[in-house]
Design goal:
single chain, alpha+beta, Muramoyl-pentapeptide Carboxypeptidase, domain 1, 2 domains, two-stranded antiparallel sheet, 9 helices, about 20% strand
């Protein structure tokens, strides 16, 4: 794989605890982030906490509540073993078993496996687009200006291609920009414009990438197409929400009407 920053999100430098001699802000923020992420899918667990890098009484209690929810000894201390349980969703997403008869199936199944593990951004220090999932997709970048939809798409393509010993960068450059991928698609003859898609949807294949067009050379959102209907694409997208925002907060399965939206399509066929 080319995008491997996620591995750094799976480790802490030392055991972290209230008033611990080896505490460091970066690791405490990782712990607080995963505690809060756990609360999003387990709202009754009592693990939601601020992400400020201070391992105080609140963080200690949130850790105890997490340990209780997971059937672990309720020490309030986060060793690497405890942290492994906290960040298990990310390990599952990036290292879990994914199968498929071809690259297109691998792309779709990889994306579905990520969604199953609930990638979600956090707001940290008043900045959106933050947290371990965003950093994993965006190669350690995060913050309000770091829209992560293309980072998500490329992480999925990279992971799926690597299962076949392929390098996704032969298809497109590593980038976080929809415009860069759209321009690459035009240069390589791999981008089908939305007008053509509407006239002949059968040219679009599951595993291809949609690019939401603002103007002919400006694209504002992207995702992976998982199924093609007569009027709609089923998709898996990062940095979106229920309303289909291009700057949402999660990775979700969605449905988009390509007859109502200007969805250009980038073909992954050369990588297949």
């Amino acid at each position: 794989m080319q995008k491997t920053h996620y591995k750094k999100e799976l480790i802490i430098a030392a055991t972290q605890k209230k008033n611990g001699p080896n505490n460091n802000k970066k690791d405490v923020m990782k712990i607080q982030s995963w505690l809060t992420l756990f609360s999003l899918t387990n709202p009754g667990a009592g693990t939601a906490t601020g992400v400020d890098g201070d391992f105080g009484s609140g963080t200690e209690k949130a850790v105890i509540n997490f340990q209780k929810a997971k059937g672990l000894p309720q020490s309030g201390i986060v060793t690497q073993d405890t942290f492994n349980v906290l960040c298990q969703p990310m390990k599952n997403a990036f290292e879990g078993t994914v199968t498929g008869n071809n690259l297109r199936q691998l792309v779709i199944n990889t994306a579905a496996n990520h969604v199953k593990n609930h990638p979600f951004e956090l707001v940290i220090n008043s900045q959106t687009n933050c947290g371990p999932w965003v950093r994993a997709y965006m190669d350690n970048n995060e913050g309000t200006l770091w829209f992560w939809c293309m980072g998500f798409v490329q992480a999925i393509i990279d992971q799926a291609a690597s299962l076949q010993g392929k390098n996704f960068k032969t298809l497109m450059p590593l980038t976080y920009s929809c415009d860069t991928v759209g321009t690459t698609g035009l240069q390589k003859g791999l981008l089908t414009r939305f007008t053509t898609v509407r006239n002949n949807p059968s040219i679009v294949k599951p595993g291809d990438i949609f690019l939401l067009q603002k103007t002919p050379h400006d694209w504002v959102h992207t995702g992976i197409i998982t199924a093609v209907g007569s009027d709609t694409f089923e998709t898996i997208e990062g940095n979106t929400n229920g309303g289909g925002s291009s700057n949402g907060n999660a990775a979700l399965k969605r449905v988009r009407n390509f007859r109502q939206s200007k969805l250009d399509v980038f073909s992954i066929e050369p990588l297949v």
